[in-house]
C-alpha cells in the first residue's frame, strides 16, 4: 500500500480538465485526505496540452513528486507528456473509442484500462459527463469510496439542479462498475478516508481571503495570469464586507485607483504579475514618496516581457527591490506556503499602515495555482489583528500642527513615521505629492529639508527592523553542517526533500525566508554552516546574491528556470549533487 | 454644512508661481468659489491634480489633495470617491495631462460616471515643458517640436466624452469669472461625472489661442436656443467646428452616479479591530 497516491487527468484545453481534477481533489479533501494539486497548462484556451495533477495522502503533502500512479488520458499526448512519471504498474484510463485514442499504445509494463467513457456517459444522460465516468473508474482502481465523489459532485452541481447531480452520480457509478466487471487486476491502492474536515484552496485564494480578513475594502486590478484569481476571488465577496472591486482599464489605472482609495483611508490593494508591475512602477514611486499605505501583490510568472505566462519563475525579486527611479523605501514580503499567503497578506496590510509605505506581497505561479488542504483552524479569524498605525483624529491632531497651524503629514519624527489624517478630519486638510515636500506636504527644493525627508522615510526601515519579527522559518536538523536557504513557494518541496535526505542519512538545516526586505540577518547561520546552498526558481540567483551581499561570502546555488517548479525528489538529488561537488573541490 | 465657509478658505499659503496673467488663476478662483458656494469646506474636499502648470493647482488650494503622476489623476479621483462617497472630489489637469497621456483614463472615467468634477485647464499647449504641441493644438500651430504644426487634427474632448456616455459636458472660459464659476457649480452639483473643459490661456507659449481670441469668438449657449438635456442638440454643438462655445453642453438628468448604481456607499476608512466577524464564513466556502 503506497503512502501517497499520485493521480492526473490530462487532455486538450477545453476538455474540462480543470473541473475534473478539482472534483476529484474536492472528493479527497472531503474524505479527510490531504491533497496537493498542480497544473500543467499552456497559454491558450482551446487546444494545447493541459493536465491537473493530484497528490494525496493521509499525512500532509506539500509538494509534487516525479510519480504518477493513475492517469486519465483524454489524448495520446497526455501519455507522452507524462511518460517520465509513469512507472511499472501505473494505470492509464482511456477511451479506446475516441478517434484520437484508437491507435494509442500503452507501454507494456503499465496497465491500460480501456473504458468507453463517452458511451457510458451518454447512457447516464450526456456525453459531457465522460470525465465523471473516468473519475468513477479511478475510484474503483484506487479503492476510494465513491460516496465521497458523490459529495463533491453535489457541491459542484447542486445549484444547477438535482437531476444533474443524479446523472453525474450515475455516470460515476457506470465508470466504477465497468472497471470492476471488465477487469480483474489486483490494484495496490487503498485510499482510506479519515474523520478530518479539510479546506482546499490555492495561493491566490488565500491572498484574497487574507485581504478580506485584514479589512481590505478596495481592490482595483487588470486581469493577468497568474494573478487574476485574486480578483476573481474578491469579486462578489468583498461587497459582503462593505468593499468594492473595480476591473480597471489597465494597470496604470488600477494602482492609481488603489492609491486614491488608500488616501481616502481605506485598506486598498492591487494585484498583478511582472508586466503589470512594470507599468505600475512610476506610481509606485509616488506611493512611497507620498507615504501612502498600499499592498501591491505581484504573482510572479516567467519573464522577461511576456516570457512564459503560464510557467513558474521567481525572477522579479530585483525588480521589486530596486524598480523605479530614485530611491524609495518599500517592504517586500514573500509568503512561503499557501497558508502563509493568508497570514502574510494580513501582515502586509498592517505593515503598510504602520509604516506608511508600499508593501510588495509576492507569490509565484506555482503557489498561486496549486491547491492544498488545510485544517480550517489554520485560518483562525480570531487571530487576525488590525493595526492602523499613527492615525490622528479631531482630538489628537492638534499635536501635529506646524507653527503656522497647518497639519504635518510628513512630520520629522525619530521613528520616521508621521501622523496620518483621513479626509474629513477637521483641520487635517493637506497635500500629498510625489514632489519632494516639507513637513506639511508642500513642495520644496530646500536642500536641508530634502535630506531630512529622505532620512525620515528611510528611518522607517530601521524602526521596522527593530520592532518587527523578521525571523525565517526553520526546519530540518538544527545542527547540520549543510544550510539550505530558500524563499517563495519552494518551501514545500524542500521540506519533503529534507525527509528524503534524512532517510539517506544526510542532514540539512533549512531556512525559509518570507521577508526579502527588510530581511533577517542570516550571517551567524551561514557562518555556522560548512556549506550554504540557496534554492530558487531563477537563473541568476537573485536571493543568493542578497545573501552573499549580507554575509560577504560565496554561497552555492540551485537554480531552476525551465518554467517548472521544484519537485521534492528532484530537489533532494540536486542537494546531494551540490554537496558531492563541494567535497570533490 | 457651515455657511461661513468662504472661498479664501480654499486658498493655501503658497503663492502661485504661474506666469502673471496665466489663465489658470481664473480657473482656480472659479473652482474655489464653486466649492464654497456649493457648501463644501476644505476638510471634506479632496482635490486630485495632474502634472503640468495646471497640475500645480493642488498646491495652491487648501484641501485634502494629491498631486499625482502625469495623466493619472482621474483613476486617483475614482479611488478616493469609491472609498469615500462622503467626500467631495475634484480632479484637475491640463489638456496634455488629460487628453494625451491620460486619454485612456478619460474615456473610462466618463463611462464609469463616478460622482466627481473633472476640470481640464485647456491652453492648447504644453506649458510646463515649455511650449510643445498638445492634443488640442490647432493643426497648423507651430511649436519647437512641430515647426510646421502638428499636422494632425486636434482631439475633440467633448465629442470623446459624449461618445463615451458622458452625463455632464460643459465648456467655460477662465476669464469670464462669473460664468465660469456658475458652470463649475453646475458640474459639482451634477450627480455623476461632471466634465468641464476650461479655456485657460497660456500667455507665455500660445500667442494664437489668446484671451482676445476666446473673448471674440465665444458664443454663450445660454444666449443660444440650446437645450442641454437634448443629446442631439449637444451633438450639434460639439461637432460644430465653426464656433467656440461656453456653457453647459449636455446634462443627463437621469444620471445615476457609480456609487449609487453599485451600492458603493460605505465610508471605507472605518475598520473593526480584528477580522470582520463573518469572515469566518470565508473559510467554510473552501470545504
Ligand atoms: C511620464 C511623464 N512624461 C512626461 C512628463 C513631462 N511633462 C510634465 S508636464 C507635461 C505636459 C503638460 O501639459 P498640459 O497637461 O497641457 O499642462 P500645462 O502645463 O499646459 O498646464 C509633460 C509632458 C512627466 N512629468 N511625466
Ligand atoms: S507657462 Fe503658460 S500655462 Fe504655464 S504658468 Fe505660464 S502662462 Fe500659465
Automatic annotation (TrEMBL), chain A:
Basic and acidic residues composition-biased segments: 435-474
EC number in record: 1.2.7.3
Superkingdom to which the source organism belongs: Archaea
Domain Pyruvate flavodoxin/ferredoxin oxidoreductase pyrimidine binding: residue ranges: 210-455
Annotated GO MF terms: 2-oxoglutarate synthase activity
Manganese listed as a keyword: no
Domain Pyruvate/ketoisovalerate oxidoreductase catalytic: 13-175
Region annotation Disordered: where it falls in the sequence: 426-474
Keywords: Oxidoreductase, Pyruvate
Catalysed reaction equations from the record: 2 oxidized [2Fe-2S]-[ferredoxin] + 2-oxoglutarate + CoA = succinyl-CoA + 2 reduced [2Fe-2S]-[ferredoxin] + CO2 + H(+)
Gene Ontology process terms (BP): organic acid metabolic process; response to oxidative stress; sulfur compound biosynthetic process
Top-level class of the enzyme under EC nomenclature: oxidoreductase
Subunit-structure text: Heterotetramer of the KorA, KorB, KorC and KorD subunits.
PANTHER family: 2-OXOGLUTARATE OXIDOREDUCTASE SUBUNIT KORA, PYRUVATE-FLAVODOXIN OXIDOREDUCTASE-RELATED
Name under which the protein is recorded: 2-oxoglutarate synthase subunit KorA
Organism: Halorubrum hochstenium ATCC 700873
Upper classification of the organism: Archaea, Methanobacteriati, Methanobacteriota, Stenosarchaea group, Halobacteria
UniProtKB/TrEMBL annotation, chain B:
GO molecular function: iron-sulfur cluster binding; metal ion binding; oxidoreductase activity, acting on the aldehyde or oxo group of donors, iron-sulfur protein as acceptor; thiamine pyrophosphate binding
Signal listed as a keyword: no
InterPro entries attached to this UniProt entry: 2-oxoacid:Fd_oxidoreductase, OFOB, PFO_beta_C, THDP-binding, TPP_enzyme_TPP-bd
Pfam family, one: PFO_beta_C
Domain Pyruvate ferredoxin oxidoreductase beta subunit C-terminal: 202-263
GO biological process, one term: sulfur compound biosynthetic process
Name by which UniProt lists this protein: 2-oxoglutarate ferredoxin oxidoreductase subunit beta
Residues covered by region (Disordered): 130-157
Cofactor(s), by name: thiamine diphosphate; [4Fe-4S] cluster; Mg(2+)
Residues annotated as transmembrane: none
Taxonomic lineage of the native organism: Archaea, Methanobacteriati, Methanobacteriota, Stenosarchaea group, Halobacteria
Amino acid at each position: 500500500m503506497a503512502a501517497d497516491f499520485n493521480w492526473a487527468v490530462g487532455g486538450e484545453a477545453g476538455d474540462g480538465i480543470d473541473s475534473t481534477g478539482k472534483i476529484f481533489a474536492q472528493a479527497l479533501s472531503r474524505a479527510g485526505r490531504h491533497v496537493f494539486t498542480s497544473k500543467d497548462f499552456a497559454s491558450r484556451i482551446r487546444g494545447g496540452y493541459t493536465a491537473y495533477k493530484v497528490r494525496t495522502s493521509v499525512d500532509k503533502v506539500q509538494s509534487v513528486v516525479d510519480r504518477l500512479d493513475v492517469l486519465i488520458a483524454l489524448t495520446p499526448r497526455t501519455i507522452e507528456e507524462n511518460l517520465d512519471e509513469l512507472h511499472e504498474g501505473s494505470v492509464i484510463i482511456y477511451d479506446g473509442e475516441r478517434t484520437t485514442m484508437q491507435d494509442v499504445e500503452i507501454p507494456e509494463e503499465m496497465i491500460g484500462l480501456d473504458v468507453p467513457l463517452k458511451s457510458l456517459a451518454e447512457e447516464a444522460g450526456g456525453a459531457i459527463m465522460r470525465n465523471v465516468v473516468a473519475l468513477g473508474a479511478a475510484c474503483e482502481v484506487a479503492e476510494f469510496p465513491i460516496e465521497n465523489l458523490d459529495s463533491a459532485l453535489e457541491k459542484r452541481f447542486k445549484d444547477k439542479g438535482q437531476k444533474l447531480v443524479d446523472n453525474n452520480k450515475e455516470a460515476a457509478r457506470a465508470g466504477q462498475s465497468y472497471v470492476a466487471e471488465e477487469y480483474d487486476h489486483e490494484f495496490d491502492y487503498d485510499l482510506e478516508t479519515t474523520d478530518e474536515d479539510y479546506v482546499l484552496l490555492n495561493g491566490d485564494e488565500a491572498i484574497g481571503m487574507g485581504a478580506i480578513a485584514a479589512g481590505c475594502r478596495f481592490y482595483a486590478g487588470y486581469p493577468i495570469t497568474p494573478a487574476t484569481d485574486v480578483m476573481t476571488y474578491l469579486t462578489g465577496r468583498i461587497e459582503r464586507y462593505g468593499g468594492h472591486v473595480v476591473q480597471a482599464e489597465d494597470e496604470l489605472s488600477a494602482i492609481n485607483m488603489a492609491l486614491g482609495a488608500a488616501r481616502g483611508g481605506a485598506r486598498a490593494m492591487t494585484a498583478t504579475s511582472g508586466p503589470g508591475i512594470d507599468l505600475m512602477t512610476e506610481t509606485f514611486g509616488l506611493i512611497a514618496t507620498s507615504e501612502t499605505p498600499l499592498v501591491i501583490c505581484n504573482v510572479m510568472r516567467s519573464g522577461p516581457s511576456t516570457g512564459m505566462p503560464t510557467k513558474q519563475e521567481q525572477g522579479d525579486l530585483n525588480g521589486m527591490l530596486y524598480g523605479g527611479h530614485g530611491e524609495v523605501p518599500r517592504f517586500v514580503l514573500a509568503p512561503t506556503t499557501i497558508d502563509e499567503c493568508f497570514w502574510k497578506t494580513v501582515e502586509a496590510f498592517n505593515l503598510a499602515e504602520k509604516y506608511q509605505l508600499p508593501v510588495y506581497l509576492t507569490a509565484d505561479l506555482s503557489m498561486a495555482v496549486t491547491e492544498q488542504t488545510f485544517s480550517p483552524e489554520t485560518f483562525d479569524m480570531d487571530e487576525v489583528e488590525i493595526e492602523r498605525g499613527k492615525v490622528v483624529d479631531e482630538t489628537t491632531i492638534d499635536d501635529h500642527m506646524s507653527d503656522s497651524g497647518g497639519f504635518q503629514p510628513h512630520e520629522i519624527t525619530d521613528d520616521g513615521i508621521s501622523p496620518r489624517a483621513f479626509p474629513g478630519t477637521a483641520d487635517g486638510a493637506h497635500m500629498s505629492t510625489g514632489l519632494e515636500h516639507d513637513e506639511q506636504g508642500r513642495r520644496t527644493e530646500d536642500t536641508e529639508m530634502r535630506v531630512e525627508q529622505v532620512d525620515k522615510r528611510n528611518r522607517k526601515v530601521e524602526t521596522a527592523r527593530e520592532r518587527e519579527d523578521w525571523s525565517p522559518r526553520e526546519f530540518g536538523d538544527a545542527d547540520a553542517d549543510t544550510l539550505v536557504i530558500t524563499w517563495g513557494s519552494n518551501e514545500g518541496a524542500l521540506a519533503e526533500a529534507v525527509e528524503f535526505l534524512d532517510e539517506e542519512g544526510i542532514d540539512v538545516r533549512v531556512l525559509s525566508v518570507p521577508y526579502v526586505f527588510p530581511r533577517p540577518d542570516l550571517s551567524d547561520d551561514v557562518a555556522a554552516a560548512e556549506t550554504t546552498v540557496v534554492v530558487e526558481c531563477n537563473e541568476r540567483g537573485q536571493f543568493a546574491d542578497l545573501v552573499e551581499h549580507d554575509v560577504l561570502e560565496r554561497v552555492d546555488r540551485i537554480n531552476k528556470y525551465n518554467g517548472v517548479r521544484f519537485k521534492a525528489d528532484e530537489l533532494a538529488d540536486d542537494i546531494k549533487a551540490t554537496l558531492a561537488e563541494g567535497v570533490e573541490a | 454644512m457651515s455657511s461661513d465657509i468662504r472661498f479664501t478658505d480654499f486658498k493655501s499659503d503658497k503663492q502661485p508661481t504661474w506666469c502673471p496673467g496665466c489663465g489658470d488663476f481664473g480657473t482656480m478662483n472659479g473652482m474655489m468659489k464653486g466649492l464654497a458656494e456649493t457648501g463644501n469646506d476644505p476638510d471634506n474636499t479632496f482635490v486630485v491634480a495632474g502634472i503640468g502648470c495646471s497640475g500645480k493647482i493642488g498646491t495652491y488650494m487648501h484641501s485634502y489633495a494629491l498631486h499625482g503622476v502625469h495623466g493619472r489623476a482621474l483613476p486617483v479621483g475614482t479611488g478616493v470617491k469609491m472609498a469615500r462617497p462622503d467626500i467631495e472630489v475634484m480632479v484637475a489637469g491640463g489638456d496634455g495631462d488629460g487628453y494625451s497621456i491620460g486619454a485612456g483614463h478619460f474615456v473610462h472615467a466618463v463611462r464609469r460616471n463616478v460622482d466627481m468634477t473633472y476640470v481640464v485647464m485647456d491652453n492648447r499647449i504644453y506649458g510646463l515643458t515649455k511650449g510643445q504641441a498638445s492634443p488640442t493644438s490647432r493643426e497648423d500651430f507651430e511649436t519647437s517640436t512641430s515647426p510646421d504644426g502638428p499636422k494632425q487634427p486636434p482631439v475633440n474632448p467633448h465629442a470623446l466624452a459624449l461618445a463615451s456616455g458622458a452625463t455632464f459636458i460643459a465648456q467655460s472660459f477662465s476669464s469670464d469669472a462669473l460664468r465660469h464659476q456658475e458652470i463649475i457649480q453646475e458640474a459639482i452639483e451634477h450627480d455623476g461625472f461632471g466634465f468641464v473643459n476650461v479655456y485657460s490661456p497660456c500667455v507665455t507659449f500660445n500667442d494664437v489661442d489668446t484671451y482676445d481670441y476666446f473673448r471674440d469668438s465665444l458664443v454663450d449657449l445660454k444666449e443660444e436656443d440650446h437645450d442641454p438635456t437634448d443629446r442631439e442638440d449637444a451633438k450639434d454643438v460639439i461637432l460644430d467646428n465653426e464656433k467656440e462655445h461656453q456653457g453647459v453642453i449636455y446634462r443627463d438628468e437621469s444620471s445615476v452616479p457609480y456609487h449609487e448604481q453599485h451600492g458603493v456607499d460605505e465610508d471605507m476608512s472605518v475598520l473593526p479591530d480584528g477580522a470582520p466577524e463573518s469572515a469566518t464564513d470565508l473559510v467554510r466556502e473552501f470545504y
